[in-house]
Every structure is written in C-alpha cells, then in structure tokens.
Amino acid sequence: MHPLGELLTDAAHGCFPEQDGGWHRVPPWREGIEAVVAFTGHAVLAIGDDVTDDELHGWDVDGYGGALHPRVLASLVGPHGWVDSLDVIVAAHGAGDDGSALEPGIDLVPCDDMADHPRVRHAESLRDDVRVWADRDRGGLITLGRGLGGLPELSVEVVHAGRGLGRRLMRAALGLVPKGEVVVAAVAPGNAASLRALLASGFVPVGAVQVFKPRRM
Q1: Are residues 94 and 178 in contact, defined by beta-carbon separation less than 8 angstroms?
Q2: In 68-131, where does DSSP find H-type helix?
C-alpha cells in the first residue's frame, strides 16, 4: 500500500499522525498527481523529488496550516499547473454487498455509457480503474476508483435533489467496496449538503487535502 494510503487507513481506524506541528513527505501515488494532506497538527506532502526539503523549509511549511498556505501551494503547483479545490477527506468502511441490502429500494446498475459525463471525466483525470453506477431511475450517479493514496475513492452526484437520494446512494455505494476496506471521499467544505450527507451515511472526517497537477517549470 502507498504510504499515504497507509496513513489514511490508520486515520480511518482512529490512529492519526503525532500532533507535532511537523510535516513529512511521501512520493506521489499516481504519475502527474500530487497533493498536500493536512491532519490535526501534522501535514503530509505527496510531491516529486524536484522540490527540495530546503525549499519547503524556506516556504515555512508546517503542520499547523502552513503546508496549505496559498503561497506554498502556488509554489508547488507552478505557474501553469492545475489545482483542485481544498477538500475535507472523509472515510468509511466497505460493506461488501451489491448495495441493495444496505439500502433497500436502491438498485444500482453499472453504467458503461456515461464516459462523457463531467463527473466521470473528472474522476478519470484523477483516479485509476474508475467504474460507474446509477440507480435504475438515473436519479444519481456513483463513481468509484483508485484515488487518494491508492485507496478506493467514491463520488456521488444527484440529478434531482431531495428525498434523501444522495444519502441513500452513498450508503448503497459502500456495498460496492469489499467488506472492511477503507474507502474515502473528498468534499469541499462549502458543500454543506454533501458533507452532511456523507456524515449521515457513516463517513467520518480524517483530514483535508489539496490535489494538484504540477507544472513547476
């Protein structure tokens, strides 16, 4: 397992890095994708070795928010890179079912015809082995792939809000992950509706992440 995946797995089980105000680095888990992950009092930088420790110290990187300072991120991303939104990382455990037993009334079906959907394109730009499901009424969409730190990462999009469909899809999606395996999701802090739905579906917050595609040269 990738070192970042190990850290997130431990965090999902309640074991976090020491709150020492420090940071450490690990290699990127996917070519072209890097990230800064903030836990309580400690930061992890999944970045390439073209950035030196001396540079990071010079930018005042620390585990108390300094690793996510806009100045640091701008330097890591570079003038022509791409940066995603700052997200909360939430984690849960797979249930190893097809989803129907977890959430009666939600019948998930694979969707091989949605490759052009914006949610799917975004997922495939950041994750490997992305698969797509929807409920039979196509009221919502689930993507699941190997994402942050190589862990299963899911996202859910609801076409028509209301009736608690988002929460039901999230609970059903846990059945698509092998029983006991840690699965993560990332949600913008301002997306309060999705964050509440994830928490209500059994996810717990473990940290924050800024994912980016660097172009430092």
Answers
A1: yes
A2: 70-77, 118-126
